[in-house]
Amino acid sequence: MVDEKSKAYHERYYKKHREVILEQQRAYRHTDAGEKVRKKADKRRKRRKVGEPLTPQQWGQVLEAFGYRCTYCGRDDIPIEQLTRDHRIPVERGGTESIENIVPACRTCNTKKGTKTEVEFRLELKKEAADGAI
Ligand SMILES: [Zn+2]
């Protein structure tokens, strides 16, 4: 909880000493410790841009839209609770949590896909199928 009184005090203090504080912050940013803090904040900011994970309702919509089957192997005999949320573009690679980026995948496919994008993974599956056909 934020202490309102101390918040007001800090606000007043900040206004009064704004220039000095900003100068101190500028100087701090160029130290090793400051650099570390800044990098951490950058990461956090990036993470926030990713968005909130789907609500159970949204996930239900996705499952319905995809016919309750794994997008990649097409299996439709997988219990709902075992269908996982796959990021078409993995978050590590710039994907977001938005509903357009989420598809249902069985654990086997999701694990196999790893940090590949949907396109890369589908190409791999295609190649595997072609190899198997020879
Ligand atoms: Zn699958």
Explain what the structure shows:
With 134 residues, the chain is mostly helical. It has 5 helices and 2 strands. It has helices spanning 4-29, 32-49, 56-65, 107-113, 118-133; strands spanning 83-87, 102-106. It has 2 domains: 4-49, no CATH class; 56-133, Orthogonal Bundle (DNA Binding (I), subunit A), CATH 1.10.30. The structure holds zinc ion. Zinc ion binds next to strand 2 and helix 4.
Reconstruct the topology from this structure.
Elements: H1 4-29, H2 32-49, H3 56-65, E1 83-87, E2 102-106, H4 107-113, H5 118-133
Antiparallel strand pairs: 1-2
This protein binds zinc ion.
Zinc ion (ZN) is lined by residues 70, 72-73, 75, 105-106, 108-109.
Assembly type of the chains comes to single chain
The sequence of SSEs as H and E is HHHEEHH
CATH architecture of the largest domain: Orthogonal Bundle
Bound small molecules, deduplicated:
zinc ion
Count of domains: 2
Return the CATH topology of the largest domain. DNA Binding (I), subunit A
Percentage of residues in DSSP E strands: 5-15%
> In whole angstroms, how far apart are the ends?
66 Å
Mean pLDDT: 91
